[in-house]
Write a structure and sequence with these properties.
Number of helices: 5
Structural class: alpha/beta
Shape: globular
Distance between the termini: 58 Å
CATH superfamily: Carbon-nitrogen hydrolase
Number of domains: 1
CATH topology: Nitrilase/N-carbamoyl-D-aminoacid amidohydrolase
Order of helices and strands: EHEHEEEEEHEEHEEEEEEH
Length: about 300
């Protein structure tokens, strides 16, 4: 497949209500609007069809999951085909009874599913109890061929791991999308909020620089409280896209719904990699230890 030298991407930052149908209708309208503004590929936030339910553990919530293909992909596929737009569509995937994933379907511009990514890194933190709901992904880090180009998607917690970004870039992805649901614990915002958001932004810009690719982080916005026992989460928005040099091309607010539009240029990727040839200079003969959990000595061996 031949790829375009440049294309337009749209990043949808939206709030989510308790109504699955309302969220899907809003997302569909925002994708349609982005396409009318020139976007050729549009990314939605993580788990956009519902409020962020992982604030509590409740087995009844598994009823929200759906298969792929399913209602969400079918609704968005109609828009993809009508507008000739590629869509990154996060899904709470029901794979089988008792097996659920936090996934993203890549819907190509002809309305067909080009691929599926299943979130690899699953967090388990206060108000982010994802290990209760999601089976770790088993499809690996992948690049997908679409009508605009080779792209990759990872999901939220994946954005803190350089290994996933590297493997996706090595497969030829020109852009890494990170659909996200991240925000502040209200009690921590005043003291730690600015540093937390800055770290989130910085690590993803680092992925762009280290791999010579575009990176787009697509977050939700708004306050959500889905557990009576919890204090809720204030999602910090801040959706952004940066180029292969880490330059931020567009960035959204912390508290409003917005759709960002930005241009991806493969010539920019080429020029950056020629001047900063990190992929060329990798010491692939020296990285065997990266597959180990930690490079400590076996605890039962005595030092000689």
């Amino acid at each position: 497949m031949s790829y375009k030298e440049k294309y337009i991407t749209g990043l949808v930052q939206m709030s989510c209500s308790p109504s699955l149908n309302e969220n899907l209708q809003k997302a569909a309208a925002l994708v349609d609007d982005a396409a009318q503004r020139g976007a050729e590929i549009v990314c939605l936030p993580e788990l956009f069809r519902s409020q962020y339910f992982c604030q509590r553990e409740d087995a009844a919530i598994f009823d929200l999951a759906e298969p792929v293909p399913g209602p969400t992909t079918e609704a968005l596929a109609r828009i993809a085909k009508a507008r000739s737009v590629v869509i990154v569509a996060p899904i709470f995937e029901r794979r089988a009874a008792g097996v659920y994933h936090n996934s993203a379907a890549i819907i190509d511009a002809d309305g067909e599913i080009a691929g599926l990514y299943r979130k690899m890194h699953i967090p388990d933190d206060p108000a982010y109890y994802e290990k209760f709901y999601f089976t770790p992904g088993d499809l690996g880090f992948r690049a997908f061929s679409t009508q605009v180009g080779s792209i990759a998607t990872l999901i939220c917690w994946d954005q803190w791991y350089p290994e996933g970004a590297r493997l996706a870039a090595l497969q030829g992805a020109s852009i890494l999308f990170y659909p996200t649901a991240i925000g502040w614990h209200p009690a921590e915002k005043e003291k730690h909020g600015a540093a937390q958001r800055d770290a989130w932004r910085t690590v993803q810009r680092g992925h762009a620089i280290a791999n010579g690719v575009y990176v787009a982080a697509v977050n939700r916005v708004g306050f959500e409280k889905t557990s009576e026992a919890g204090a809720g989460l204030e999602f910090w928005g801040s959706t952004f896209i940066c180029d292969p040099f880490g330059v931020v091309l567009a960035e959204a607010s912390t508290d409003r719904e917005e759709t960002l539009i930005a241009e991806i240029k493969l010539t920019r990727l080429e020029n950056v990699r020629r001047n900063w040839p990190f992929l060329r200079d990798r010491r692939i003969d020296a990285y065997a230890g990266i597959t180990q959990r930690f490079l400590d000595e076996d605890p039962w061996r005595k030092k000689q």
